[in-house]
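Bump. Still looking for Heme exporter protein B structure tokens.
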Amino acid sequence: MNTPGTALFCARLLRRQLVLAARRPVDIGNPLLFFAMVVALFPLGLGPAPDTLADFAPGILWIVALLSNLLTSDGVFRSDFDDGSLEQLLLSPQPLYLSVLAYVCAHWLVTGLLLALVSPVFALMLNLPATGIVALFFSLLLGTAVLSLVGGIGAALTVGLRRGGMLISLLILPLYMPVLIFGSAAVKAAVSGSPAAPYLAILGAMLSLAVALAPIATAAGLRISVDA
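Sorry for the wait, here they are.
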């Protein structure tokens, strides 16, 4: 039997993860529902004044997006670890770096990309100006990809633990902070009339660094967790 090429193998792996996610719509809906609930509750706590909501909107939306991503990070490798597929993946001749990228890409497509697509609706609920909505969308596209890559490291290190949800939060939440800072800063800059491009460029640099290094750390974490 011929071994599939690396590109074909990763494409099949990505497709498999997306199909599994589609069969569990709750896993896709939970982050979106969490996003909607928290955004809807903030006006009750801050008051319905449009100016007040607009001032806090960039930070609110980015914090909720970060927490929504964190909510799903624990399950990136969990099901494959439980059924033994992850061990077979580690034994395959394909580069683990690219396999990890396929897992992370699937996670981003069903969480980060969807959050970025629906974010304009929630931004309007918080009275965010149109210029800020554009910056919010692009900052979430870049930032949530970084969050998924970093979250994969924590997921790999805790996949062998039965209750690793709290531990993964402690491990990766500090690494999320720079993304939160520059993501919300991009939106605030756009709202104030300043250029958001420098902040988006920094997020792009973070993404490039994460693509280069995070899968290596994730692969090492998987080997540690499976061998333990």
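The first helix runs from residue 6 to 23.

Edit: fixed formatting.
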